[in-house]
């Protein structure tokens, strides 16, 4: 029977091992990136931190240096002819034009058209109006902002950059395009980081409750970062092997010390 100093040493060692595991399995100690002080997996559907923007009627606006993919759906050659800088995208009927620093885009025949601050539908209307004033056959202009994207990371089918192709592109659409959530994903901890990287708006979503579908905050905006955390059990399991090895080494060391103590009596 172990008594005296040996017993104390044993109990302290056992307590240290238990504490070590407890810390490893704590929520704040989970194996995830982009952790914030506001993280919780008890959100009912959507929780917003540092709310800065209203998505009611929100559209991604065109800015200087944006790349616009523009097409005349009735006459493809209209936007290609005479424009050596246009980048014809393979078999696509769209041609890429870069918005200049002054917010205008230089187009064949009509020259500069101011588009900065407009959404893609407004820009298409302005460009169409400009072509109509040249007494051309009435065009049918479509505009896409080809460099506006969101970044998706975490436990999803496919990570990476996804271009925003329409105004009503929402979180559920993005996850569908990415192949959905993996079985290891924590459906209660899906985060969107929006706006200023130094002080972002943080949106935490619990996808287990269908009510999140009705929230306008989940309409994605250009440069949003979306992160799907792994489940805590899965994340902590990555450390189990290391903990197990450490525990075995610790138990061998403790047993050796106790044996030495008993033999020295």
Automatic annotation (TrEMBL):
Residues 150-228 form the SLBB domain. It is found in: Cell outer membrane. Residues 60-145 form the Polysaccharide export protein N-terminal domain. GO terms for cellular component: cell outer membrane; pore complex. GO terms for molecular function: polysaccharide transmembrane transporter activity; porin activity. One of its GO terms (biological process) is monoatomic ion transport. It is a multi-pass membrane protein. PROSITE patterns: PROKAR_LIPOPROTEIN. The chain crosses the membrane at residues 242-263. Belongs to the BexD/CtrA/VexA family. This is Polysaccharide export outer membrane protein. It comes from Pedobacter duraquae.
């Amino acid at each position: 029977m172990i008594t005296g100093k040996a017993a104390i040493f044993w109990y302290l060692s056992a307590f240290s091992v238990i504490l070590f595991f407890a810390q490893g399995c704590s929520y704040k100690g989970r194996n995830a990136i982009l952790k914030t002080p506001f993280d919780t997996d008890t959100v009912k559907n959507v929780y917003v931190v540092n709310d800065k923007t209203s998505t009611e009627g929100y559209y991604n606006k065109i800015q200087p240096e944006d790349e616009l993919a523009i097409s005349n759906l009735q006459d493809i050659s209209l936007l290609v002819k005479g424009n050596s800088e246009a980048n014809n995208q393979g078999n696509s009927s769209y041609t890429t034009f870069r918005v200049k620093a002054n917010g205008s885009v230089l187009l064949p025949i009509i020259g500069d058209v101011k588009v900065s601050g407009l959404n893609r539908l407004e820009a298409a209307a302005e460009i169409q109006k400009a072509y109509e004033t040249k007494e051309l056959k009435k065009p049918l202009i479509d505009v896409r902002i080809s460099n506006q994207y969101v970044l998706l990371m975490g436990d999803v089918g496919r990570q990476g950059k996804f271009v925003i192709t329409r105004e009503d592109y929402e979180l559920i659409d993005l996850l569908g395009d990415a192949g959905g959530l993996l079985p290891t994903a924590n459906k209660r901890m899906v985060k969107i980081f929006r706006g200023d990287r130094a002080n972002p708006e943080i949106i935490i979503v619990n996808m287990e409750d269908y009510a999140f579908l009705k929230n306008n905050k989940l309409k994605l905006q250009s440069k949003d970062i979306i992160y799907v955390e792994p489940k805590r059990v899965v994340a902590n399991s990555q450390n189990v092997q290391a903990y197990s090895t450490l525990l075995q080494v610790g138990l061998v060391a403790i047993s050796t010390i106790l044996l030495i103590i008993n033999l020295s009596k």
